[in-house]
Amino acid sequence: MLEHIADYQGVLCEIDRVLKPGGLFSASVPRRWPEKICWALSDAYYQVPGGHLRIFRSDELRDEIEQLGFNHYHRHWAHALHVPFWWLKCLFWKNRDSNWLVAQYHRMLVWDLMENPALTRILEKWMNPVMGKSVVMYFRKEAVS
Question: In terms of Cα–Cα distance, which of 128, 47, 63 is closest to 27?
């Protein structure tokens, strides 16, 4: 959610302030290259109130969080099946709520969420490293000695 907040560094400082030593923290932001395609397809996508204010470089965000005293211990990608949906929404931005293709893809995503079929779980597992929409990073706050 850091991509939605103007003062995301302030939010990171507040997380650092309230999280006890040894506590765990996860940061999930849109992955750079799928997000850049969304921004290229639609100016309105990133200009909507409450929308994405920036595109992060995950290595730079990781460095910022580590500089606060957090140790990074894991990273993965998620939501690969959502990437084409957002590209379609951006491509058909002006009529995204009534576009048949967008509606059908949304219907598939809802079905996937509700039914959790093995086929889409396997597809997403294989696709996430290549085109996962989100990068998810895990941190532990350093214990005070």
Answer: 63
